[in-house]
Design brief:
The chain has 202 residues and is an alpha+beta fold. It contains three helices and six strands, in the order H-H-H-E-E-E-E-E-E. It has one domain. Helix content is 33%, strand content 18%. The strands form two sheets. It has a four-stranded antiparallel β-sheet. A two-stranded antiparallel sheet has the order 2-6. The radius of gyration is 30 Å and the shape is elongated.
Length: 202
């Protein structure tokens, strides 16, 4: 028995593939758009990070000039003005400074006597209290801008809302945080402190 053929109008509709492209586009487009927004977000983050690093380096260079910015607030304001052009005025900025009397000490631990030769500081071992806070620190920098001719490790952290609204769909936080650091040299506007740090053995 021959199978029953569809009526000609229905057969014509069943064989029509003119809308297949639209259906395929409807399936693929959301994924493609999500990927594109993710790519643009990552690119924007890297651009913002490079602008922040560049602004920090300019601040470091200007702080060494006689006519340059020397106070923490003016340096912060200059960096923020540059970065806000990229991330928006709603961004939050947090700066920190650690000062050292020599470039060679930046990021280094306070010297100590390794009595038991285990390669790390242990409570009770003698150490030089370079930053004057009464305890051994893995970074000998003193908090703040420091004094004349001191080297200053200047760090700025920026938090801002992402450009694209796809963060939650990708499991990313809604806010992006970037950080950059540079080393400034204070102007010799006075005599640098050269006092010998006390040795503590408690």
């Amino acid at each position: 028995m021959r199978p029953r053929l569809l009526p000609r109008p229905l057969a014509r509709i069943a064989g029509d593939e003119s809308a297949v492209t639209i259906i395929e586009f409807g399936i693929v487009a959301p994924v493609m758009l999500l990927m594109l927004m993710g790519f643009f977000d990552l690119a924007h983050t890297e651009y913002a990070r490079s602008v922040l690093q560049g602004a920090m380096q300019i601040a470091g260079r200007n702080s060494t000039l006689e006519s340059g910015q020397t106070t923490g607030s003016t340096i912060d304001a200059a960096v923020q003005a540059q970065v806000q052009r990229v991330v928006g005025s709603a961004a939050t900025f947090t700066s920190s400074r650690l000062s050292y009397n020599d470039f060679s000490k930046v990021g280094k631990p306070e010297p100590y006597t390794d009595t038991n030769a285990n390669g790390q500081y242990d409570h009770g071992e003698c150490f030089e209290d370079d930053n004057g806070n009464g305890q051994w620190d893995s970074d000998m920098g003193a908090t703040g801008q420091g004094g004349a001719d001191d080297a200053v490790l200047y760090t700025m952290t920026v938090s801002y809302h992402r450009m694209f609204p796809m963060a939650t769909m990708l499991g990313w936080p809604a806010n992006q945080t970037i950080t950059a650091s540079t080393v400034l040299r204070n102007q010799p506007y006075g005599s640098q402190s050269t006092s010998t740090p006390p040795t503590i053995c408690t």
